[in-house]
């Protein structure tokens, strides 16, 4: 373990680490955590979703990012969401800060983190209108949608109507080709 890993990193140190490292790291309260690789089905779900969201986002002047773009939640916390949609100006050349939609695809190694840690942190983002959690082993998941009363949890139906984007997203198209 390097000396740098023994103490919390500053934002500048973290961004430098990410530039130099062959591995991606998420930063949680200043501590970097190497990210595990994703399985084929996980990657296919992300790819399908990006392909489905891209035309909807383009029509609204928004951008869709996948897996390799950082989301800065605070000075000492950065994640790499599986998918995020941002409709405002770019925040920084290396990260975004104000997504309207964030999507995580569950995997055995990240499921607890996505349900607990990321859920509570993402829902604090003022710009966020929806957090979608997708199962990786079968079609399904949950959508947390912002309402005037706060975030409401919704089960997924056959067609998703995601916050900040207009247009239907068929659940079976998200899972096309997934075993």
Secondary structural class: alpha+beta
Overall pLDDT confidence: 91
Radius of gyration: 16 Å
* N to C succession of SSEs: HEEHEEEEEEHEEEEEH
* Helix residue percentage: 25-40%
Number of domains: 1
Domain Putative restriction endonuclease: 12-162
InterPro entries: Nuclease_put_TT1808, Restrct_endonuc-II-like, Uma2
Pfam families: Uma2
Organism: Thermus aquaticus (strain ATCC BAA-2747 / Y51MC23)
Write the layout of secondary structure elements.
Elements: H1 11-20, E1 25-28, E2 31-34, H2 40-59, E3 63-66, E4 70-74, E5 77-79, E6 83-86, E7 95-96, E8 99-105, H3 111-122, E9 130-134, E10 141-147, E11 150-155, E12 159-160, E13 169-170, H4 171-174
Q: What does this 3D model show about the protein?
A:
With 179 residues, this protein is of the alpha+beta class. It has 4 helices and 13 strands. It has helices spanning 11-20, 40-59, 111-122, 171-174; strands at residues 25-28, 31-34, 63-66, 70-74, 77-79, 83-86, 95-96, 99-105, 130-134, 141-147, 150-155, 159-160, 169-170. Strands 3-6-8-9-10-11 form a 6-stranded mixed sheet, with helices on both faces. Strands 5-4-7 form a 3-stranded mixed sheet, with no helix packed on it. A two-stranded antiparallel sheet has the order 1-2. It is globular. It comes from Thermus aquaticus (strain ATCC BAA-2747 / Y51MC23). Residues 12-162 form the Putative restriction endonuclease domain. Pfam families: Uma2.
């Amino acid at each position: 373990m390097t000396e740098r890993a023994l103490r919390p990193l500053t934002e500048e140190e973290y961004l430098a680490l990410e530039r130099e490292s062959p591995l991606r790291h998420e930063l949680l309260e200043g501590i970097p955590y190497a990210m595990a690789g994703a399985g084929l089905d996980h990657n296919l779900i992300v790819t399908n979703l990006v392909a489905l969201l891209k035309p909807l986002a383009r029509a609204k002047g928004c951008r869709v990012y996948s897996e390799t773009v950082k989301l800065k939640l605070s000075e000492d916390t950065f994640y790499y969401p599986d998918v995020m949609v941002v409709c405002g100006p770019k925040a920084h050349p290396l990260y975004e800060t104000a997504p309207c939609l964030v999507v995580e695809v569950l995997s055995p190694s990240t499921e607890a983190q996505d349900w607990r840690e990321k859920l509570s942190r993402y829902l604090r983002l003022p710009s966020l209108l929806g957090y979608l959690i997708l199962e990786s082993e079968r079609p399904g998941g949950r959508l947390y949608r912002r309402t005037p009363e706060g975030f409401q949890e919704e089960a997924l139906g056959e067609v998703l109507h995601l916050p900040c984007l207009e247009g239907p997203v068929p659940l079976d198209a998200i899972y096309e080709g997934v075993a």
